[in-house]
Amino acid sequence: MDPLNTLFQKQLDTMQRIELFLDIYKCKPFVTDDLRELKEEVSSAAEKLQCTKLYLDTDRKDVCSQFIKIMQKMRRNELLMLHLLELGIQNANSDAKPTQSSTSKQMPLKELQNETKPSKMYLQDYTKSPFALRSKPRDIHFYDFEANITEEEFETIPKYLKGRMQLSELKQFLEKDVIKCFEDKYTLMYKHRKALVSQHDLNEWKVYNSMQAHFPDQKFITQEDLSRKTGKVLDKKSYSKLQMLRHLHILQEVRSEGTIYFLWSYSK
Predict the structure, then answer these.
(1) Helix, strand, coil: what percent of the chain each, to 5?
(2) How confident is the model at residue 246 (pLDDT cuts 50, 70, 90)?
């Protein structure tokens, strides 16, 4: 563009801005009060909006807390009813007529008998349930150790750590090894002592409860627990999977007195 035309264009732009300023300035006496009131109203609206947000957050927490307590009571009542119903079935079997076949047996409750659909509860409810008093082991799952890995979360894992591993492989390791190790450990650890008839179980029960003093408010397993669960020493690939679970904030690794602890840190 010609330098002279450029100079003229700049002057025209400057003149337009000056004219716009003068137009606004002439209107100042008429709009000042309105703008001031509008500013005050915006400030007041912002304060009310903040107060409303704080109230809703507080109310939501209270409602969620009440809901959790109600659900826990319902689950405890459900477990109690299942236990009483199971006792009723056992009593009915003992009073059965002798004409019945000795090989025919009354089927127990599906919820308690079907291994493909094991019982599921919270650890807090498990400690108060009949299962904690029974010496016979049960395959129980716990809501406390539920975790889900989405495709988006999996993609956040660095490539140097992930390598060629697929999401399905990491999920299988989490569910079959890690979560199962947590469940087996706390199924035994939260049993009542009088329900332990095996010396091996009693020794492990003592070790678990003594180690819990290091992390009283957290659930954890050790590297040795995982090795016993898988039946082999953790290899490099397994340890890489544990590092991925750390990256996804499902586990937290802590070393203390030569022992490697994996703390459950997943929050829904």
Answers:
(1) 65, 5, 25
(2) very high
Question: What mean pLDDT, rounded, does the chain reach?
Answer: 80
CA distances from 128 to 20, 67, 81, 173, 191 (A): 78, 20, 13, 30, 10
CA torsion through residues 218, 222, 225, 230, sign: positive
Backbone angles phi and psi of 252, in degrees to 5:
-130, 130
Tokens 């999977």: give the residue. Answer: 241
Contact 244, 164 (CB under 8 A): no
**pTM for this entry:** 0.56
Helices (H) and strands (E) in the chain, counts: 10, 5
pLDDT for 114:
42
Neighbours of 20 (CB within 10 A): 10
Please provide residue 141's backbone torsions phi and psi, each rounded to the nearest 5 degrees: -105, 155
Of 222, 197, 228, the C-alpha closest to 210 is 222
Residue pLDDT, tens place only, 79-129: 777 767 766 655 665 555 444 433 333 334 333 444 444 568 888 888 888
DSSP 132: G
Q: Look at residues 216, 262, 257 and name the one whose alpha carbon lies nearest to residue 243.
A: 262
User: Which tokens hold the place of 85?
Assistant: 């119903």
Which DSSP helix (H) or strand (E) runs through 45?
Answer: helix 3-94
Alpha-carbon distances, residue 161 vs 60, 126, 237 (angstroms): 39, 37, 10
pLDDT (tens digit per residue) in 138-183: 778 898 999 989 999 999 999 988 888 999 999 999 999 999 999 9
Strand bridging mode 220-222 / 259-264: antiparallel
Cβ-contact 250, 205 below 8 angstroms: no
